[in-house]
Predict the structure.
Amino acid sequence: MARLFTVLFGTGDPATQSQAVTSGLDSLHAFADAIIAVSFFLIPAALLFLYYRREDRSRADQALLTLFILFLASAGLAHLASVLFGPVHGLVVVLKALSALIALTAAIVIWRLTPELVKRPSRDRLQSEIAAHLRTLDELKETRQQLEERVEARTKELAEAKQRFEIALRGSPIMVFTQDRDMRFTWVHNPPSGINPAFLIGKTDAKILPPEAAASFMAAKRRAIETGESQTIEANFELFGRRRSYYLLTEALHDDKGDAIGTTSVAVEITERKEAENQLRLLLRELTHRSKNLLAVIQAIARQTAARTKTIDDFLDRFGARLVAIGCSQDLLVADNWHGASLRTLVEQQLNIDRSGSQIVIDGEDVMLKPEAVQNLGLALHELATNAQKYGALSSGRGSVRVHWQFCESDQLKLTWEERGGPPVSTPERSGFGRAMIESVVGKALEGEVKLSFPAKGVRCVIMIPETQVASRG
């Protein structure tokens, strides 16, 4: 380079200077071609490195890169050949011609790809779009957070509602379920005790219930689907070894389009209510029957009392006392829901133990008598106690009464009334109301045997009560 500078700007022989200029230019040309050749090989290497490091490669980019690399490689080879063989060597000319052909091809391809390349956004536009996308992403994140909070709140509300729903149904006789149009169970909540919801899923009423009950329930559900109106039905049937009664409310279940896709139903077990109603009817019939019997007894007592009294006051006293005795027996029966009454309690009540307890001895195991026995035995004990207070052992402070009972070998209950220490007793010349009632009415009513005797030492009465009149022992 220094030599070339000296030649170009120095002084000397023109011929020598011209030769020197030519030699210097040849050296500069060779050096420039070498540099260009090296550059043409380095640039494709850099482009290939960048191309394969990028992820957003397209076919257009690949085509352009291929042509550009071929052009640079052919041009580099041409320059390298020019350095080695001279600028007019045949190989140099061929390589330059090849470079020209590749360059022309690259130019045509570039012009054809120009519309697609023009559509590619600029860096500023890309940055703007990225910023917009980031803002949108932030907004979406905020919206998502709001939605998640709303979903969480709604989920919490649904969980609380479900908890209240489950608490309300837990332990209740209410079952809620859904079925499809083919009457197959699709969802069941709170089924009857002992039944697993999974056992019902997929089954129809006909697979679970007795034929008659299944037909009634399925007919009601089909009417609900066809008419769109709620249906109610009650049915009694045996299910899993137990007689059950159910009240069913069913309605059509619709999808989002309003088409009926099945039914949703509420089944309430009313077995206990039905049993209570039947028991109430039984009690009412029993009450009616007993009321009629009681009225007949009262009427007979009134008539017989009136026939054996001379004054109204005497009638009222005796009749009132007998009504009180009947009322005491009724109170005992009502206290135990008319299942019966304790024999010991009945004796204590009719003998008024609070006033005469020191003169009365009661002995025997506790026995529950049936209502019929309680009413009639109460009248007998009242008449015996009244007679003892007026004429017998309880008319003075020295006498005593012993009431005791025990079961005989025939399983009959033997109740004995014995008086001691009172005035001497003699057999009455005529039969009064009390004696007639004890010997005739009470014995027949109890379907047993009554023996009333009058030994001098005190009245004695033995009442045999059949086992059928005993509700329980002990």
Notes: Residues 179 and 186 are 5 Å apart (CA to CA). The chain has a mean pLDDT of 80. DSSP finds 14 helices and 13 strands in the chain.
